[in-house]
Request: fold
Amino acid sequence: MLKARIHVFLKPSVLDPQGQAVTNSLHALGYASVRETRISKHIEIIFVEEDRSSVSAQVDAICDKLLANPNTEHYSFELEEVTPG
Amino acid sequence: MKVSVITFPGSNCDHDAMQVFADRGHAVAQIWHQDTVLRDPDLVILPGGFSYGDYLRCGAIAKVSPVMREVIAHAYGGGLVLGICNGFQILTECGLLPGTLMMNRSLQFICQHQHIRVETNASPFTYKLAPGLALDIPIAHKEGNYCIDADGLKALQDEDRIVFRYCDEQGGVTEEANPNGSLDNIAGICNPRRNVLGMMPHPERAASDYVVSQDGIVLIEALENYFQSL
Reply:
């Protein structure tokens, strides 16, 4: 089986008010060197097949169709082999 | 007119929308998200709420529900579609309208009365209304901060597709009157064909005599006048 570890993140041009709030909190905690925080999503999907190119193509399609909003988000992913358990 | 209101799991303004149209004598149908027939409506309403719990992104799961294929076909056929609040989010997710509703600038859920200005009457939804008219229509959302790239914004402006802007009581479109950080104070936009409208404010919450504002009736009347003119 293959596990896709997918990272969906806001484009650099998109304002991240949640990240700004976290930056403010980190400053309040004394981490003065924190300059910027960006919040993103980590999604894991397990596929029953082993064919990496087939799964890659499916993950691309899944991200384009549902997981990422192309207006505001980019995505990246890697595949790893996992054993059923 | 015949109005079909779509109910997704988590919709919570569907009955309000049905009620205000039924009160004015219109035939109203409630359509479940798994249905694949819209019952031949003149107007489809995607109501406010939290479809599918706002999982993943607001409107993202709703866009792949069975009924949305029919809603998109209805829109491509020229039929009217009105998305209110979560309905607007669904319309942007499914691509019927451009842009994205991001989290409010304040990070807070905002529930308040809000004035919006009618920017154009070149749509069935604002038929024969006076541009500049300020209406008191409540808002209630956390993700209503309209974002679009520079080219997209220019297209909306050049093509007169910004239907409503947030404004003050006098109709002044100011930064202070912008509740959520929306680009260009955008509260509602339509598609190029002008048969699909998305708006964050809730006209169905301002169309009964037992609520504070009745300004939403103006928008229902505009639709009624549009259909009478056909």
In short: The two ends of chain A are 11 Å apart (CA to CA). The CA atoms of residues 13 and 76 of chain A lie 17 Å apart. Chain A is about 35% helix and 30% strand.
